[in-house]
Specification:
- The structure holds two protein chains of two kinds.
- Chain A has nine helices and 19 strands.
- By secondary structure, chain A is an alpha/beta fold.
- The N and C termini of chain A lie far apart (about 55 Å).
- The radius of gyration of chain A is 20 Å and the shape is globular.
- The relative contact order of chain A is 0.13.
- In chain A, strands 10-12-11-13-14-19-18-17-15-16 form a ten-stranded mixed β-sheet, sandwiched between helices.
- In chain B, the strands form seven sheets. In chain B, strands 28, 29, 30, 31, 32, 33, 34, 35 and 36 form a nine-stranded mixed β-sheet that branches. Chain B has a seven-stranded antiparallel β-sheet with strand order 14-13-10-11-12-15-16, with helices on both faces. A seven-stranded mixed β-sheet of chain B has the order 17-18-21-20-19-22-23, sandwiched between helices.
- In chain B, helix 23 crosses helix 24.
- The longest helix of chain B is centred in the N-terminal third of the chain and has 18 residues.
- The chains are: A alpha/beta, B alpha/beta.
- At the A-B interface, helix 3, strand 15 and strand 16 of A face helix 9 and helix 16 of B.
Chain lengths: ~350, ~1050
């Protein structure tokens, strides 16, 4: 951290002046904002932010420090961090080091002293914004679209295996498009052994693993750029009880013939109201997505919309009418954010138990 | 679910007069809720006897009852109005207690009135400690080990089990009254005894202390569909041990991890679900700073001071939404009015920090105990919004109006290190400034953290600010560079502070920004951190950032200055005036801009003005808004002294201060000029002089003759004002005063003859030529009692036609001489022989009594004043000019004191104001109005019967009192002196008691009523034991009259007024406000 000026140069023509929180590292990325008021470390370690420069709308960041326990992935995938005011000398019984230490260790560019509210309004107005973190105010970004290969940068290269906490009831395979560790933790907490497999894993491999269920994880980027893998997604989902989360939800929808589109400026934060259309209840969810399933393209003969966003009525969840496939756009694993929808994991696992045997569609 | 169709008429109970622990936040909540109900086509019946509120305006509810908040009165209202539902959660503890009483008495069942919103058993679970405890155990939520006891012995026994320190919380008391922290058995015994007396059910909770843990609050809402949302969480700077109402609080929490936040969030939701709250709920937690261990301290299943703060901190209108939920709506069916196209079922995200500092009354009550504990002592609060903590802190300190520009409190630099250490260890209103001083002396954060228990983050921020200032001051002002300038304003350091630090003129300081053409930028409060577009006109300043405030489009914009935090002498009535001033501007098609910093009030509701700036009321902050908005002028008459005091600086800065000329205002404030003016106008003033030495004082006093009224010239209000009977007392007074006052400011002292005659008061609207006086108030107590503390009758009951004419003439002369445009308040005193009418005081601004006059006469004084100020003529307004005819009913204004919350404050009435609020009583006769005013709540008009009698201790007795005592059957006790005097008049006293015996008898609760002007000890004991304590025989006579009155009738304000309008209104009806 130093007093040297740094710039966030946007393709909209706007240039925001700030200072280096990290060492000077110039980098481009898609601009997004997150409105959560706590959970900066969870956000920074969420692989779904790969390729994105994340602006935190809450202005005071780093107050309770950082540690090695809060980690949604082993890497810090985001392209950059932009904040207003950092705290350099945090105190919390869990804190091991400061935000500055964190960005230095992760080697990501980070700016402070930026008018993040003004930036948020720019993103809200233009929707798709690219920018460059730079030492020069006229260093405009070259990037024009989301990197179609971004998932490759965050998915595991080879399988990883985790044991359940306590009694093992099931074995779940997680297709990794850039999964959050909290998804694995949530599955382990409800008695699942978890095998994480690379995003390009084939049906044969899955058959060999012989799981009780499959989870399609969250991840970064445009789901349409993964079209090559949709046949596998469809085949696996038809064979195993499946849960899709965020990008995983979008991929299953695409695999079954629906379309996705870009949201004007995304849903990123811990305060998004979602209505469960089965129960009529509204829950507050944690969200992080820039794309959404178009409701008009859903085959309503086979699928029902199970969840809707209260504010913009966008699709937040789908349920197959005949097969045990459920997908959700939000993050029931929380971290950051409310745990109101944790029951999704419990219900999913419960549904496996009730059936008593493997469900092959 | 759509709204409940069977509910068509709803009764709302207000919270009554303002007392410590229950203040203007309920005017804000109640007003919002009533309007939300009306929006749904509900017929709203409102009962609230606080006349100074917006809530009791006639357009807020369909039927407004300014009637006592008693079971009897509300039962009568229910019988008459037959509402379908009752909404009890908006009137604070008062509203809840009444709803419970109505249920228990079977009134609600008998009249088939449904209780809306949160069910009654929920309220009981929240209030009854034992029920609450067992419920928490059931759902596995941690609470402090505790036991409800009804005796001291049980308390002591339980303390032995769990160990000290121990918290004592009396059941069902306001603001935790009567509670405290005990460190040993003797303290425990004392606090429990007091607590049992304060609790209406004689029960206190004895609880394990988690003193030193972080105190965290959650504001939660739940609908009938079980959807739960957190509106806001808050973190107290002061760790557990200081009442949250007395704590400095920030929103959102600053030092909790997401996992801790989610843990407490989930716990809050679990609790609100188990309770079954429909609407808003406040949950207070203690969180161990060294682990994730927490306990739930308290749950308030209703709107509260914290919910008002949360509403203003986030923009989310909790009370409004709660009212909709009570009608059956679900959160996802109610639009978020801030964005207009998202729904209420979300959790606000904010992109600034909100910081609240309480406003304590110790500037007036310097003899009171300043220690803060579980019993709330603050009368009001300020909030500041900023993009960082130091800026929020600086703004909040400026907003307090305690003469400070920064963390530097003059005097603390003189404390010895030992005294400083002691002051650090003891939470008081001054501790913030004490720890700033400690940083200046080089104390480390670690040491201060150890002593105070305050979380390091906050101490770091304070230390940073101190160091920043110290570093700046190493340079000269001319050396300060552009980078420093930007830091200075980003952290909201004021020009006044810079002028102090650099020893330069404020104007010179400002030139650096003027040269660079840099002004404050403003940000919007939108509930969503800019995620959605919003057009809420609610802003705060941030410097060196993007200014997102679009200028108003109209061609005329006028600023209304609010009145800041509620304090003794400046209460909710000035918020009433500010709100009406803003509305009046809007009615005339002029865009209204309000500046204020009080989070509890209606004036800071985002819907009151066209633009609302949540800012300190300092010249510099106001000037930034004036320039930003290019306002054509500023209205200063409606925000009490706060606004008037800014007029000077604003005029100097070239701002058009609308209304009375500043020079002419000075004539009312400078005593010499004032007396000169009165002499010119041939109006009598009380003989007196300003003296420059003790010798002069004695000389002048001798000339005038004792008793004299004396006060220092540098204070406003009645502070330091005293009636002096002899030269000896005069010497003592000067000696005492010189202890607290630097000698340079001690003189001049103002000495006046003390005329103990009838005091009367008028509020007038003037346009420079004509004036309207809707009526005259007559005080029950003689001059010498602060007008804010006297019981006052409207219209005046004992004035002759001639006297009224004289008063009108004097008012007219003064108004014309001062060329008053707008409001004018004049206080008069009639000489005891009633030959002379003296002018005591002239206030060229709206006064405390304006809301009452406006309500009972229908003359909307503020609206008229604003119209006049904007160029209209009074004669065109449709009202008769001059003094209006008496209204055909009576209104009695009753001052309400919070003395039992403030140990060490003597309830003796004096020229210094002590009351925190007022109640009103309306009646066809003075007697009826007095009965309702004294009986403003249950057990405020206690009978004086055998075993619970009247105790008298008065220096002199007169015929009138004797007559009243003879007329009323009272069980009378008195001191030997008083008994002797009474005997001379042939009045027998049942028990003659010495002061010591009397105190014993009071402790044993043998008296319901005490009238004493001789012994502080007797008065204070009376308060402790729940007796009515009076100090003037005139008040006692009025009390006995009230006690004697039977057959109270209830009626709406409109029906009282039905005949009045015809008397005074000529033709045109003014638009309803």
């Amino acid at each position: 951290m130093n007093d040297q000026n740094a710039y966030l140069v946007l393709n909209t023509g706007d240039v925001l002046k700030g200072k280096w929180l990290s060492k000077p590292i110039e980098q481009e990325g898609e601009l997004v904002f997150n409105t959560a008021m706590t959970g900066y470390q969870e956000v920074m370690t969420d692989p779904s932010y790969a390729g994105q420069i994340v602006a935190l709308t809450y202005p005071l960041i780093g107050n309770y420090g950082c540690n090695d326990l809060v980690k949604e992935s082993i890497y810090t995938a985001l392209a950059g961090l932009v904040i207003s005011t950092p705290c350099n000398d945090p105190e919390h019984y869990h804190s091991d080091y400061s935000l500055v230490d964190f960005v230095d260790r992760a080697n990501i560019p980070a700016l402070y002293d930026i008018d993040t509210r003004a930036l948020t309004k720019i993103i809200r107005t233009y929707g798709e914004v690219y920018g460059k973190i730079s030492t020069k105010p006229d260093d405009y970004p070259k990037q024009e679209r989301v990197n179609p290969l971004v998932v490759e940068t965050v998915s595991v290269n080879k399988m990883e295996y985790y044991q359940a906490n306590g009694t093992v009831n099931h074995h779940v395979v997680v297709f990794d498009y850039g999964h959050k560790q909290s998804i694995v933790d949530a599955l382990r907490s409800v008695g699942c052994d978890v095998t994480i497999v690379p995003f390009h894993t084939t049906l044969d491999t899955i058959l060999e693993l012989d799981p009780d269920a499959v989870v399609f994880s969250n991840g970064p980027g445009d789901p349409a750029s993964l079209s090559d893998y949709l046949p596998t997604v469809k085949a696996v989902a038809e064979m195993y009880p499946s849960l899709g989360i965020c990008l995983g939800h979008q991929l299953i929808a695409l695999a079954f013939g629906a379309e996705t589109t870009r949201l004007p400026y995304g849903h990123r934060g811990s305060n998004h109201p979602v209505k469960d259309l089965t129960t009529g209840k509204v829950m507050i969810t944690s969200q992080n997505h820039g794309y959404v399933v178009k409701d008009s393209t859903i085959n309503q003969n086979d699928w029902e919309i199970s969840h809707l966003n209260v504010n913009d009525q966008s699709v937040e969840g789908l349920k197959h009418k005949f097969m045990p496939i459920q997908t959700i756009q939000f993050h029931p694993e929380a971290h950051p954010g409310p745990v109101d929808t944790h029951y999704i994991f419990e219900d999913f696992i419960q549904s496996l138990s009730i059936k008593g045997e493997k469900q092959h569609a | 679910m759509p709204k409940l169709t069977e509910i068509k008429k709803v009764l709302v109970i207000g919270s009554g007069p303002i007392v410590i622990g229950q203040a203007a936040e309920f005017d804000y909540a109640g007003t919002q809720a009533c309007l939300a109900l009306k929006e749904e086509g509900i017929e709203v019946v409102l009962v609230n006897n606080n006349p100074a509120t917006i809530m009791t305006d006639e357009n807020i509810a369909d039927h407004v009852y300014l009637e006592p908040l008693t079971l009897e009165s509300i039962s009568q209202i229910i019988e008459k109005e037959k509402p379908d539902g009752l909404l009890p959660t908006l009137g604070g503890q008062t509203g809840l207690n009444l709803a419970m009483a109505l249920t228990e008495a079977g009134v609600l069942a008998q009249h088939k009135v449904a209780l809306l919103g949160t069910p009654l058993d929920t309220i009981e679970k929240g209030e009854d400690r034992e029920l609450f405890k067992s419920m928490m155990k059931q759902i596995n939520e941690p609470i402090a080990e505790s036991l409800s006891v009804e005796s001291i012995a049980d308390a002591v026994a339980f303390a032995r089990q769990i160990g000290y320190p121990i918290i004592v919380r009396p059941a069902y008391t306001l603001g935790g009254a009567g509670g405290g922290i005990a460190n040993n058995q003797s303290e425990l015994e004392r606090i429990v005894k007091n607590g049992l007396q304060q609790s209406p059910i004689d029960q206190v909770l004895i609880e394990q202390s988690v003193k030193g843990w972080k105190e965290i609050e959650y504001e939660v809402m739940r609908d009938a569909n079980d959807t739960c949302v957190i509106i806001c969480n808050m973190e107290n700077l002061d760790p557990v041990g200081v009442h949250t109402g007395d704590s400095i609080v920030v929103a959102p929490t600053q030092t909790l991890t997401d996992q801790q936040h989610q843990m407490l969030r989930s716990s809050s939701i679990k609790v609100i679900r188990e309770l079954g709250v429909i609407g808003g709920c406040n949950i207070q937690f203690a969180l161990n700073p060294d682990s994730d261990e927490y306990i739930i301290i308290e749950v308030n299943p209703r709107v509260s001071r914290s919910s008002a703060l949360a509403s203003k901190a986030t923009g989310y209108p909790i009370a409004r939404i709660a009212a909709k939920l009570a009608l059956g709506y679900h959160l996802d069916e109610v639009l978020n009015p801030i964005t207009g196209d998202t729904y209420a079922s979300f959790e606000p995200a904010i992109d600034y920090i909100a910081l609240k500092i309480p406003r304590w009354p110790f500037d007036k009550f310097y003899q009171a105990d300043r220690t803060l504990g579980t019993q709330m002592k603050a009368t009001g609060e300020v909030m500041a919004l900023a993009r960082n903590f130091p800026a929020a802190l600086n703004k909040a300190i400026r907003s307090l109006e305690i003469g400070l520009t920064s963390l530097q409190l003059p005097g603390v630099e003189k404390l010895s290190d030992t005294a400083l250490n002691q002051a650090l260890g003891e939470p008081t209103d001054q501790r913030l400034f004490v720890l700033a001083e400690a940083f200046r002396r080089g104390y480390s954060v670690a040491i201060i953290q150890k002593i105070t228990g305050i979380t390091k983050y906050f101490l770091d921020q304070i230390k940073w600010l101190i160091d920043f200032e110290l570093n700046l001051a190493k340079q000269t002002w001319s050396e300060i560079n552009a980078n420093q300038l930007s830091q200075i304003k980003k952290y909201a350091v004021s020009n006044k502070r810079l002028a102090e630090l650099f020893n330069v003129e404020e104007e010179i300081v400002q030139t650096k920004w003027d040269e660079r053409n840099i002004r404050a930028s403003y940000k919007m409060v939108d509930t969503c951190a800019a995620e959605f577009s919003a057009d809420t006109p609610y802003f705060y300043s941030s410097w060196y950032e993007d200014d997102e405030v679009e200028p108003l489009v109209g061609d005329k914009r006028v600023i209304v200055l609010g009145s800041g935090p509620i304090r003794i002498g400046q209460g909710v009535e000035f918020d009433y005036c500010s709100v009406h001033a803003a509305l009046a501007l809007k009615h005339q098609g002029i865009e209204a801009i309000v500046i204020n910093n009080n989070p509890e009030t209606v004036s800071t509701d985002y819907s009151t003005a066209d633009h609302l700036y949540f800012e300190p009321l300092n010249a510099e902050d106001v000037m930034q808004v004036v320039e930003k908005e290019q306002a054509i002028g500023v209205l200063v008459q409606f925000g009490g002294q706060t606004a008037i005091h800014l007029a000077d600086d604003l005029v100097k800065a070239g701002v058009n201060v609308i209304g009375t000329d500043l020079e002419l205002i000075d004539k009312t404030e400078d005593r010499a000029l004032f007396y000169q003016l009165l002499q010119q106008l041939n109006i009598p003033h009380i003989p007196g002089d300003a003296v420059m030495s003790i010798g002069d004082a004695k000389e002048t006093a001798k000339q005038i003759g004792y008793p004299i009224l004396i006060r220092p010239s540098y204070v406003i209000g009645g502070q330091g004002m005293l009636v002096i009977q002899s030269e000896k007392e005069l010497e003592q007074y000067v000696a005492n005063l010189s202890k607290q006052t630097p000698s340079s400011r001690l003189f001049p002292l103002l000495i006046d003859q003390f005329v103990e005659g009838i005091e009367v008061e008028v509020d007038a609207v003037c346009d420079g030529e004509d004036l309207i006086i809707p009526g005259i108030f007559e005080h029950i107590e003689p001059a010498g009692v602060h007008s804010g503390d006297s019981v006052a009758v409207f219209p005046a009951r004992s004035l002759s036609k001639q006297e009224k004419e004289t008063i009108t003439q004097y008012t007219q002369k003064i108004a014309q001489a001062l060329k008053v445009k707008g409001m004018l308040n004049i206080q008069f005193v009639l000489s005891p022989d009633r030959e002379t009418i003296y002018v005591l005081e002239v206030n060229p601004r709206a006064s405390r009594t304006v809301p009452i006059v406006s309500k009972v006469t229908g003359v909307k004084m503020v609206e008229l004043a604003v119209r006049v100020q904007m160029g209209e003529h009074l004669r065109d307004q449709g009202w008769a000019l001059g003094l209006h005819q008496d209204i055909p009913f009576y209104a009695v204004k009753m001052p309400i004191f919070s003395s039992n919350k403030l140990p060490g404050v003597d309830p003796l009435l004096s020229p210094e104001m002590k009351s925190t609020g007022e109640a009103i009583g309306l009646g066809k006769t003075v007697e009826e109005a007095l009965a309702k005013a004294f009986g403003w709540k249950g057990e405020s008009l206690l009978p004086v019967t055998a075993g619970k009698g009247l105790f008298l201790s008065l220096s002199t007795i007169d015929d009138k009192l004797v007559h009243a005592l003879k007329h009323t059957k009272v069980a009378l006790s008195a001191t030997p002196d008083t008994a002797d005097q009474l005997a001379e008049y042939g009045v027998n006293v049942a028990h003659v008691l010495t002061v010591e015996e009397a105190i014993k008898a009071i402790e044993n609760e043998q008296f319901n009523l005490i009238c004493d002007n001789q012994s502080t000890a007797i008065r204070e004991q009376g308060l402790v034991n729940g007796a009515v304590v009076l100090s003037y025989p005139e008040t006692l006579i009025a009390y006995l009259t009230a006690l004697d009155y039977r057959d109270m009738d209830i009626a709406t304000l409109a029906s009282y007024r039905a005949e009045t309008n015809a008397l005074t209104s000529i033709s045109r009806n003014l638009p309803l406000l």
